[in-house]
Amino acid sequence: MSTLMTVSRLDVRYGQKLAVNQACLDVAAGTITTIIGANGAGKTSLLSGLMGLAARSGSIVFQGRDVSDEPPESKVRRGMILVPERRELFGSMSVQDNLLLGAMAVKATRHSRRDRLDLVYKKYPRLSERRTQQAGTLSGGERQMLALGRALMGNPRLLMLDEPSLGLAPNFVNQMFEWIVGLREEGMSILLIEQNARLALDVAQYAYVMRQGEISPRADAAEMRSREDIAAQYLGPRRKA
Amino acid sequence: MNPTVALLLAQDGITNGIVFALLGVAILLVFLVTRVLFVVQGEFVVLGAVTLVQVQRGEVAGAAWLLMPLALLCLVLSAIQFVRERNSRLWSLQNGICLLALAIGLCATFYPPAGKSAWLQITTVVCLITPMGPLLYWTAFRNICRSSILTLLFAAMCVHYVLQGLMLPLFGPEGFRALPLVRGRIDFGGIWLSAQLIFMLCVFLLLTTALWLVFHHTLPGKALRAVSINRVGARLVGISSDIAGAAAFGLASLIGAVSGILIAPLSNVYYDSGFLLALKGFVGCVVGGLASFPLAALGALLTGLLDSFAAFYASALKDSIVFALLVPMLLYMSVTQISGRGEEAGE
Ligand SMILES: Nc1ncnc2c1ncn2[C@@H]1O[C@H](COP(=O)(O)OP(=O)(O)OP(=O)(O)O)[C@@H](O)[C@H]1O
Ligand SMILES: [Mg+2]
Question: What biological-process terms (Gene Ontology) are attached (chain B) (predicted)?
Answer without folding.
Answer: amino acid transport
